[in-house]
């Protein structure tokens, strides 16, 4: 190393410099620096054990070698560095036994060997007059008990022994750590009562999470700790009554008492509105009685977990309005009756709900309810259809399988009903007499009642796409006097397209019959530009040859024709060239043909479409297909209606998949 000639240097900071040297190499390179007081080489890619030659630097006061792959033992000779004030060997993959003599260096202020899983040792009987104020052994294999002589560390402000193998009871002398600020003893095997720390006036953080502690909490344990911010006593075997004084500590932000055996009612506590608490976790205890209203006066509260207790009585959830920062409220598995505030618009989409919330039954003034994109399984309850004021209901993208009966006397006032992407089966529901927008797509419905138009007469948008419907398309769809969009795609319909769906005076503007088994001759007797005076569909998704176009607030003059993947036959009408608004055309995978064979009609609009719009029709030829039409120079014989089956198609109809 280049530093070996810098014999007069006293402070060496090489943190982050990629030295990549073995232990003996870098240690011996430093040995000539006899005046060195500060050695800081964290995150330097150092490897190999620390060589004992480094102990020759007797002037060393600070050693920081964190985040290296040193491995091996901590040299016993470090105990002879009498001037050592700071020793930091965090995250170094150290192993073996830690030298006890290092703890007794009188000048030592900071000792941090945390996050060395294979490093083991124990705490010694500390000598008097030591200077240690920071001791961090977390996530190591240190074990044993905390010695009574811990009280000799008069300056100790940080003690972190979390994630070790310590056990036994806390010595009474711990209460004499008057300068302690951070005390973390979590994830060990301590037993017995918790220590009293009421004379540790500077204490800010205290955790004994996940031990085997028992006994009760006395109000005197934390009395007078004006600076305490965090108390975590979770996952122990503590019991008895929770002192209300805990909730009134003036600086406390987080209080965790979960997974213990606390019982008895909680008392109301004073001055809740001035409390700093933002997290309270009392879950998994045996607390009983009423939930204190004081909790709902904690204006900064963000997290309140009271689940898995024995609370009873009524909890008025309207009080949540007083907690503007609350994002988590746990009341599960108690004996509570909750009164939820009366809502008009309740939007709970994507909330990971697994069932219909029971409080909804009492929402008599609900206008809109959105439970889409959750994980609700099973049956849609009958009561959900009986809200007189409910006009919007979205239960899409769940795992619903059926509707709870009886359905005969239902009289829903819904305007918009969205049940798409569930597992509903059987007959299509018809009790929403005022509905204008109904989406039953992506279910397993297999039957459409023949008189459905009499039960839902005002439909404007109706999608039955991707169900299990079969047979011929019923004329009933022609009897909806206001219908603008009808999507019957991705079913197993067969036979002819009903003439009434394509007549000139039809109200339809969107018709999707793709991916069925329809067979027909197609002729275009009526062709219009379909300009609807600037009306808009709010949002539809056009699927053209597998490409999804999500269109928001699109003008209804945007025109798409989709009769793909059926068994339609006959020539393509010349009138298509007059559709100036036509943007998407998909007639692929049918049986269209012509006389010579069928040349695709030429015209300004026809030349803009790709070949895939016509592919899969063996009788077609000409641009944009690669198949030529022979030597007729592109002249096609006039087309006339066939003497067989005829269906007139209004080519102004849109085809969108929503």
TrEMBL record:
Top-rank lineage group of the source organism: Eukaryota
Keywords: Glycoprotein, Leucine-rich repeat, Membrane, Receptor, Repeat, Signal, Transmembrane, Transmembrane helix
Annotated localization: Membrane
UniProt topology in membrane: Single-pass type I membrane protein
Location of the Disease resistance R13L4/SHOC-2-like LRR domain: 106-335
SMART domains in the record: LRR_TYP
Name this polypeptide is given: Disease resistance R13L4/SHOC-2-like LRR domain-containing protein
Organism: Stylosanthes scabra
Lineage, broadest ranks: Eukaryota, Viridiplantae, Streptophyta, Embryophyta, Tracheophyta
